[in-house]
Amino acid sequence: MTVNTQPATERPDPRAFGLPVVEQADIPAELRTLVGRVHALIDTVANTTETDPAVLAEAAAAVEEVTDRLAAAPRRQIGTMVRRDLPDGDSEYGTITNIVAGDTNPAAPPLSLVPAAGGGVHGEVTLDTVYQGPPGLVHGGWIAALLDQAVGTASSLATSPGLTARLEVNYRRPTPLFNPLEITAEVERTERRKVYVNGRIRVNGEVTAEATAIMVRVEVPE
Ligand SMILES: CCCCCCCC/C=C\CCCCCCCC(=O)SCCNC(=O)CCNC(=O)[C@H](O)C(C)(C)COP(=O)(O)OP(=O)(O)OC[C@H]1O[C@@H](n2cnc3c(N)ncnc32)[C@H](O)[C@@H]1OP(=O)(O)O
Hints:
Distance between the termini: 27 Å
Bound molecules: ligand 3VV
Enzyme class: hydrolase
InterPro entries: HotDog_dom_sf (IPR029069), THEM4/THEM5_acyl-CoA_thioest (IPR052365), Thioestr_dom (IPR006683)
Subcellular location: Cell projection, Ruffle membrane; Cytoplasm; Membrane
Shape: globular
Order of helices and strands: EHHEEEEHEEEE
Radius of gyration: 19 Å
Largest sheet: 6 strands, antiparallel
Strand order of the largest sheet: 4-5-7-8-9-6
Organism: Nocardiopsis changdeensis
Strand content: 25-35%
Number of strands: 9
Family: Belongs to the THEM4/THEM5 thioesterase family.
Structural class: alpha+beta
């Protein structure tokens, strides 16, 4: 098995590509609270049985008002990255609105992955009905998204950032909503720019989905 671990200092700095970087520690607590409340709003709107047109119209107007208020400030540049410190002293970059793990994305669960003791990464996340596919179950596309994020992060931390060239998912058991999902991934081997990575989701210790992936590391100009 060949895994070329690369110190964080040798990984590409997004600033070199013109991408702004926000320190995770600098994200205001109030913005985190807002993100959480908007997620609760999405879940509540998706599930409300309210039918009174006056109540619904009032809610829509209130949401429009707060949207306009926040839109008064400039939008973030597309590709804005967030840098975070990892518990092992390493650090990593990710897009701040990443749909799976983005700190400021109310539609993201969000999934937080950290290096695992035996290598690779692990994280735990519990999904609500925003991610529902079949009744009471996580949408298969979202299962793939969680696994994509896990294999991408494992590859990025063990080598350097890359794009998913291939992702194969086996859905072994239904993955339930409102249950802690244990997500793990680790690099199996590397071959030039190709990084072969395996990942899985467990519920109560049982594998519900597993993935094999090939990440292709991005070429950084010298
Ligand atoms: C910019 C600096 C900023 C740094 C900070 C970054 C922070 C990120 C950190 C952490 C992120 C972790 C979280 C992310 C998780 C989510 C990941 C996603 O959602 S990725 C989006 C979906 N994927 C795409 O959109 C790819 C689309 N495809 C492509 O762009 C190209 O096809 C690409 C880059 C994959 C390869 O293209 P080529 O031109 O660069 O390279 P070629 O020469 O074609 O391939 C290189 C090797 O890979 C093999 N290969 C390519 N595609 C393959 C495939 N589909 N299956 C098998 N092998 C494949 C080839 O056969 C070749 O292998 P041989 O070395 O010759 O043996």
